């Protein structure tokens, strides 16, 4: 059985919902989140931080 | 008065109080703003973080993004214990309460329709991962006797690798179809990048299903049964979530096969 059921919600799952889901409304102050390049956010911010903390999952075992 | 109004969700009025210790984004306690028979759940956030330029930079800061997303989720979670909230997207901010009221007035019909559609429903997330090693031409099964043997082996390896992918795709399609029939609605999220999720295996399905709370147990059982069906494929269930993925316009986002196909292009860097 390889199923991983984590009690804490994984950040990626949360961001799937909070950045792409939810009612998208333009507030009267800030940018619409949709205007931000979300791909850039999650790839840049998240990957760089993941790489800093955790060994890359792509590293081939030699 | 230097703060802005962060809106987490819109709900119908509910009787039960929110947890006393509940804090929202930036640590401020959420409050209820009643207007036109609806309730906006709001808290005050610093302008220094949420004015447009600041926010753009903040969203690139993983720690800040994490804390904000978790705080948002915490408030939504608390709301789901007392009502069915209509979650707003992360970082929806207004200058003051009157801005929030204006927003409610502009959208109240739509809010009511969506709240009716979502009442008593929850969202379940289902992901499928395929643990398939990349094709490795540099490691032939046996030493090829000739160039022709080598090519034959190479082709067989590629074929079996493709077969495994095809199986994974078929499994994901089948599961998605089965679960879509059980759920009232479904959404396909973009497949998750393993570098972000930190999870092994390729994410071949990342879907959300809208399920009446009363049918949740049955839905979870179906997913559980699929978990051990095929070796090399891993099924992961998350939820119940507030219906984040279904809060937008109904049917605005029909499931797109293309999204799942797109996931495969990121693989391995083989074959330029």
Q: State Rg of chain B.
A: 23 Å
Number of strands of chain A: 0
Strand content of chain A: under 5%
The run of helices and strands of chain A is HH
How many helices of chain B? The count is 8
* Percentage of residues assigned to helices of chain B: 40-55%
Strand content of chain B: 15-25%
DSSP strand tally of chain B: 9
User: What separation lies between the terminal Cα atoms of chain A?
Assistant: 26 Å
Q: H/E order of the elements of chain B? A: EEEHHHEEHEHEHEHEH
The value of Rg of chain A in angstroms is 16 Å
Provide the helix percentage of chain A.
Answer: 40-55%
Assembly state: heterodimer
Give the biggest beta sheet of chain A: none
- State the shape of chain A: elongated
Whole-number average pLDDT of chain B?
A: 85
Gap between N and C termini of chain B = 57 Å
Can you characterise this structure?
The complex is a heterodimer of chains A (62) and B (272). Helix content of chain A is 42%, strand content 0%. With 62 residues, chain A is mainly alpha-helical. Chain A has a domain at 11-53. The longest helix of chain A is centred in the C-terminal third of the chain and has 16 residues, at 38-53. The two termini of chain A are 26 Å apart. The relative contact order of chain A is 0.10. The model of chain A is unreliable at 1-6 and 50-62 (pLDDT under 50). Chain B is of the alpha+beta class. In chain B, the strands form 2 sheets. In chain B, strands 1, 2, 3, 4 and 5 form a 5-stranded antiparallel beta sheet that branches. In chain B, strands 7-8-6-9 form a 4-stranded antiparallel beta sheet. Chain B is elongated.
């Amino acid at each position: 059985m390889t199923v991983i059921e984590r009690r804490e919600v994984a950040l990626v799952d949360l961001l799937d919902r909070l950045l792409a889901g939810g009612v998208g409304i333009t507030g009267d102050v800030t940018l619409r989140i949709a205007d931000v390049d979300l791909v850039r956010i999650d790839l840049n911010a998240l990957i760089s931080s993941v790489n800093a903390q955790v060994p890359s999952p792509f590293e081939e075992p030699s | 008065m230097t703060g802005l109004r962060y809106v987490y969700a819109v709900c119908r009025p509910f009787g039960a109080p929110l947890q006393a210790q509940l804090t929202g984004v930036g640590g401020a306690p959420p409050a209820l703003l009643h207007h036109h028979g609806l309730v906006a759940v709001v808290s005050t956030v610093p302008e220094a973080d949420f004015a447009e330029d600041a926010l753009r930079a903040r969203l690139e800061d993983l720690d800040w993004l994490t804390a904000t997303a978790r705080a948002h989720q915490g408030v939504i979670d608390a709301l789901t214990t007392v009502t069915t909230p209509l979650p707003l997207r992360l970082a929806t901010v207004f200058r003051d309460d009157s801005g929030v009221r204006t927003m409610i007035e502009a959208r109240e019909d739509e809010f009511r329709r969506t709240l009716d559609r979502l009442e008593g429903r929850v969202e379940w997330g289902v992901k499928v991962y395929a643990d398939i090693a990349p094709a490795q031409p540099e490691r032939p099964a046996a030493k090829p006797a000739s160039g022709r043997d080598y090519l034959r082996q190479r082709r067989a390896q590629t074929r079996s690798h493709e077969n495994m992918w095809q199986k994974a795709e078929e499994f994901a399609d089948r599961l998605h179809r089965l679960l879509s029939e059980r759920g009232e609605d479904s959404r396909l999220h973009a497949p998750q990048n393993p570098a972000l999720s930190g999870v092994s295996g390729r994410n071949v399905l990342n879907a959300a299903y809208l399920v009446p709370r009363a049918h949740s147990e049955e839905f979870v059982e179906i997913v559980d049964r699929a978990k051990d069906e095929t070796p090399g494929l891993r099924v992961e269930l998350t939820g119940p979530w507030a219906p984040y993925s279904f809060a937008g316009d109904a049917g605005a986002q029909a499931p797109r096969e293309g999204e799942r196909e797109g996931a495969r292009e990121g693989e391995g860097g083989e074959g330029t």
